[in-house]
Amino acid sequence: MGKEKIKILHAVSEVVPFLATGGMGQVAGALTKSLAENYPNLDVRVVTPLYAYFRDKYEPQMQFLGNTEVRLAWRTLYCGLFEMKLDGVTFYFVDNRHYFDRENTYGYFDDGERFAFFSKAVFSAIECAGFTPDIVHTHDWQTALVPIYLKTQYYDEHKDMRTVFTMHNIEYQGKYALNALHDVFDLRLEDRGLVEYDNCINLMKGAIVCADRVTTVSPSYAGEIQISGGYGLEAIVRENAFKLRGIINGIDTKQYDPATDPMLKKKYTASSLEGKASAKRKLQTLFNLPKSPRKMMICVISRLVSHKGIDLITYIMDDLLNLDVQFLLLGTGDHDYELFFEDKTALHPNKVAASIAFNPDIAGLIYAGADVLLMPSRSEPCGLSQMIACRYGTIPIVRKTGGLGDTIRDCRGGEGNGFVFEEYTAGALFETIRHALDLYTYHPDDWKNLIGEAMSCDFGWDVSAREYLSVYEGITIR
Ligand code: GLC
Asked: Ligand 1 atom closest to Cα of 249?
């Protein structure tokens, strides 16, 4: 019995390489891969929706396992199941075209129903695949119903099953009107207390209460969400702090490696940076900026939403344009921000370029070619871009919040891998940029050393995967 593998099923609404609209998809893919690679005592599997985006590409490699019916209140819904193995991980795909053949991943009036269906389908998948996990590991509000359903509806069949709930961002909680309790979420009146918060159904609250372990994606964020960064859930998080742990995300260091990156024409390392200079030239050509090798190129790769600190960037934009720099932005989001950066590009085409798009290929080139990455977030559970930037020798300027403070050390205080400021003000951001520009312009050797520090940081998954393993081992029934 003791030698049997611990069976882990990740239930997640997006996972690379199939789909990532943000950090959660990347983390789910890289974490499961790392767990499967490093821990032969784990059997790691993933269940995720079968979206139209990748159906055609991957269906030939998938095996159809069967179909069942999922009951969700008065609905009886088709649920097909496909399987595919990749890098030691078994993936299950839940098929229902009505819910998942859509243009976007989220943002529909029936998102609550779509992911309630998916959360129930996780239990059908378990049955259909004949794989009963010891632990179901769920992520964010989209799969928050899994621990809730386990407690309220599936407990008798799965008494030994345990759940882990990871919060990638506590801002998005899955809030719905209370009258959806039965009709949409198929919960009984007596279950209401588990999910009710502030006169709403709050799925994230329900998962925090029902899961056996709760994790979030950095140690600092685990502290912040108990004090003031919990978007209203602080008290619930505090009450459940005994089962909470902050585990920093890693990145896939094999994928993000300028020495081997297939996207880069000329590869590079910290000791030979010509490839970085040539990526910068390519970037300047692509964005019609003057080809000046010594002009500091400041970039932003981000969703354009307020908690990413985009407002601070808009406040300093005119002052920034008075400095001898180039500014490059890639991202989509709030319409006002999109217009702001498009306007600045039109007015200052020699200094500013903005691509209002989500484009991993261009992002890859920017990580390599830019000199500095701005991440002045108001809150940041972990953040991945600052770590990717470091790998490519692009120096992050970050605000000390959540995972940004846990991964970036200020080089002004000795050995650091970037610049860190504390106050959430335009002045603090601008002053830090000026320090960076000063070092870049007048102390090129120190800048080179800084690049070396940044590129040598270990942001791999090894340490964090081990922490997840200890979370799993701590709750497995044997
Ligand atoms: C969310 C958070 C981000 C984190 C990512 C992966 O996107 O906003 O900070 O890195 O999830 O956990």
From this structure: 12
